[in-house]
## 1
Amino acid sequence: MPYSNNQKRQHIMEVQRYLHAIALMNGKIPVVIPNGVYGNETRMAVMAFQREYNLKETGTVDSVTWNKIIEIYKGLFHSAPEPYPAFPSGKFVCEEGACGQLVYVIQAMLYGMGQSYDNFPKINVCGHFNVETKDIVANFQKFCGLPQNGMVDCATWNMLVSCSGHHK
């Protein structure tokens, strides 16, 4: 059966998708947009990949390059998770009025404790450090023997991480 143009395009897109994912994790590989066309951008990404992983720089995907692309791509999903530094610094304080990603993380940890312990208050995860969040943080601080100010400082953060089981 002959190799059709559609099949060729699908294979090129597959290579491009893998390279795209690898490039997001490795800044030495240029990001290529999967479009099914093996143009100069794809060739440059393949050459950068080959250079990065000590393969012969040809700009073409031979079986050695293909196997290495698959190995690296699969490694992205089977390696240990990257640590996520959510709390900005030891002197930072998250308090009533704050909003955003860090507040979501704090509320998610508190929510998890509310699901695990019957005597722990339930919290609405909304990304806004509101009065409810302040009260539940103060309750958590009381439970842990910390100063009950309803603000998440480094000590409260570390205790939250420890108590929610998100530490190594």
Note: The chain has six helices and no strands.
## 2
Amino acid sequence: MIANSSEEALIGQIRSGDENAMRLMYSRYIRYLTAVCSRYISNDEDIRDTLQNTFLNAFSSLDAYEFRGEGSLKAWLSRILLNEIIKFEKQNQKYDFIELDSTTMDTPDEDPDSMSVPPDVIYQMIRELPDGYRTIFNLYVIEEKSHREIAQLLGIKESSSASQLHRAKAMLAEKIREYKTEY
């Protein structure tokens, strides 16, 4: 019965102390959360630590979770994970943000034709970006955060966020061009 439980029922079972329900929640969401985490963090051990902290945080703060329909648990876990990723990034200071001058920032981003590039190759290209570029790129493009939100999350200037995104896109465009000439 537990395998077919809705998120709401699953949370109820976890709140009542059901360890099987905890394991089920972990097994339902670990692959998705690992994929999200690996977009930001490249070291496998750091990914495991961040995921562990995410689940510990989730289980310990389950009373704060409010069911808002199917999918809300996944979204809640994703928010906890994103907070853990940002905490990890800040603790490790793995990026060095460099602001571009206004003339360089006004250069439009190039959108290379990536349709012929397999998604797993694009994913790997993103993972290979320098830490700061990768973080800003993911927050802006994937999480759809504004430069203002990114600046607040990371404690940087909005212009730093914009410049890092510009550089990340330029690097990705170059990687895509190189890939297309090789294959």
Note: Residues 102-107 have pLDDT under 50 and may be disordered.
